Amino acid sequence: MSRCPVLALDPLVRDRIGETRRLVEGPPLTRIELPGEVPVWTVTKHAEARRLLTDPRLVKDINRWDLWQRGVVTRQWPLIGMVDAGRSMFTVDGAEHRRLRTKTAQAITARRVESMRPVIESITRRLLDALAAEGKDGSPVDLKAVFALPLPMAVVSELMGVDPAEHPRLHRLYKAFFSMLTPQDERLAVIAELDEIFVAMVAARKAAPGDDLTSALILADEGGEPLTDEEVVGNLKAMVAAGHETTISLICHAVRGLLNAPDQLARVRAGEIPWETVVEETLRWSSPATHLLLRFATEDIDVDGTVIAKGEGLAISYSAIGWDPEQHGENADRFDVTRPTPIRHISFGHGPHICPGASLSRLEARIALPALFARFPRLSLAVDDSELRNLPIVTQNDLAELPVRLA
Ligand code: STR
Q: Can you tell me which family this protein belongs to (predicted)?
């Protein structure tokens, strides 16, 4: 492990672009140091990532991690909540993974999520009204706080049956969860509070099922092996966390990309380039997941002469993978909706754990973005792009805020 130079990630992500460039220029497998001085491997190239993401020798069970077994990494590690997230489809592999995942994946196929279109459209309209009210008389308004953040939370809540009255509390808890500035004791308390919310919700649905996906998960038979309460809670937590945090990023970065490229925006608005392309190019150029944590090698894995030793951890650096020139050509670091399509990115992952919510997030973005630009044709950034800051957490490519002017 000590053989190659190590890129230490900045815990506060003050230069995400610079770090991504260094990874893109480096070898397909690179040593990085996660905040808290935790060394892991990361894969930074499209082809190698696809191979590793279908390699059954890499698993998500934290007990396979040498640093965890030896007590070097403990619950005091600031990123522990990203890896030790309870038993769910996010943390289990093989046949058990299929058992945990199938019901959820089937509920949100491309065909099924189409039925959510009217709900998403009405949430979008309501939030555009809120945005108009906030940004009247040309004052700057935070597009993230007022539009991009509440929208996916409302949608995933509708799907899972989360009470809208909980939204403010959930936003406050996730803000603390996804920030390195939160002291660890506080983060552990936040994780415990999130657990309480979801445990209580599963108990309530058990007593009185509704027509939401949480109830469906409770009632699912799964070939005679229904999910345990712990597994339903784990899946629910994963769905709510993944279903909103990533889509916020997708919406914000699509807006940012378009506002910084007025000629491209004009062609999209003229109908020459479909919104679908905007969404796919955004996912490639600015993947919502920066570094996805973490898989563990159950035996030594040789990747073209570089060995991930048994017990070592591997991250997937989707930001760098989206900029792989081998896959996407030179200038892959640029947002360009005119590049040859289809854009074959893997920002939703690849293999058995590929994002089950991909269709839902695509639908949300394809509804939200055209509606936003139709309602506010003169939308512009209220600050220089260089002033936009990332959330202080290495795993998420998400802006702290996105100040815009509506007119
Ligand atoms: C957050 C904490 C939690 O309660 C459950 C999960 C499981 C799903 C994870 C989520 C986590 C963090 C954000 C992730 C998401 C799956 C996809 C999402 C990693 C650990 C991405 O950012 C791509």
A: Belongs to the cytochrome P450 family.
CA of 244 to the centre of ligand 1 (A): 10
Give the DSSP per-residue string, 136-177: GGG--EEHIIIIITHHHHHHHHHHHT--GGGHHHHHHHHHHH
Residues with CB under 6 A from ligand 1: 81-82, 85, 90, 237-238, 241-242, 245-246, 288-289, 292, 396
Q: What is the DSSP string of 346-382?
A: -TT--STTS-TTHHHHHHHHHHHHHHHHHH-TT-EES
pLDDT tens per residue across span 203-241: 999 999 999 999 999 999 989 999 999 999 999 999 999
Probe residue for ligand 1, chosen from 13, 231, 246 as the CB with the greatest number of ligand atoms within 8 Å: 246
**C-alpha–C-alpha distance, residues 213 and 12, integer Å:** 35
Residue 2 has pLDDT above 80, yes or no: no
Q: Residue 278: is its pLDDT beyond 90? A: yes
> Which listed CATH number (3.40.630.10, 3.50.50.60, 3.90.1150.10, 1.10.630.10) goes with 7-405?
1.10.630.10
Q: How far is the CA of 5 from the centre of ligand 1 (A)?
A: 29
Nearest to 8 by CA among 19, 320, 75, 80: 19
Mean pLDDT of 90-97: 98
Whole-number Å distance, alpha carbon 242 to ligand 1 midpoint, is: 5
pTM greater than 0.90: yes
Q: Provide the pLDDT confidence category of residue 1 given band limits of 50, 70 and 90.
A: very low
**How far away, in angstroms, is 158 Cα from ligand 1 center?**
19
Domain ranges of the chain: 7-405
To test ligand 1's pocket by mutation, which of 75, 170, 173, 237 has the most ligand atoms within 8 angstroms of CB? 237
Q: How confident is the model at residue 194 (pLDDT cuts 50, 70, 90)?
A: very high
